[in-house]
């Protein structure tokens, strides 16, 4: 699967180059996303601007992966979903459970706010 990876200071942006994500392709993408958890910059933004079609099973895999990131205290925001892709997530009742933004810039803001929140919570735990 063709994926552009752009590592920033606080997060990494994954941008699939494919127009369609099938279940098999999602498995490979999820493996790449999960591998990022052990890196120095584990927080993710998944930019879906190029994706115009996604299988229901692939949508469930991405939603589950995002949930797993948050359970581990890591950020994972999905941005720039096309209307067609958003409809699949919505039809599977996943969209309301997920952290999504219309633009990549807004996703950056969320990751940075979550980082500040984690730091504040850690400071509270230490007192």
What does this molecule look like?
This protein is of the alpha/beta class and 127 residues long. The protein has one domain (3-126): Transcription Regulator spoIIAA, CATH 3.30.750. It is built from four helices and seven strands; from the N terminus they run E-E-E-H-E-E-H-E-H-E-H. Strand 6 (76-79), helix 3 (83-91) and strand 7 form a beta-alpha-beta unit. Helix 1 packs parallel to helix 2. It starts with a strand and ends with a helix. The mean pLDDT is 94.
Any key phrases for this structure?
Transcription Regulator spoIIAA, two-stranded parallel ribbon, 48% helix, 4 helices, 127 residues, alpha/beta
Q: Classify the helix fraction into a percent range.
A: 40-55%
Name the shape in a single word. globular
Number of DSSP E strands: 7
Which architecture would the CATH scheme give at its second level? 2-Layer Sandwich
Regarding CATH, which class?
A: Alpha Beta
CATH superfamily: STAS domain
Through-space gap between termini: 46 Å
Q: Give me the secondary-structure category.
A: alpha/beta
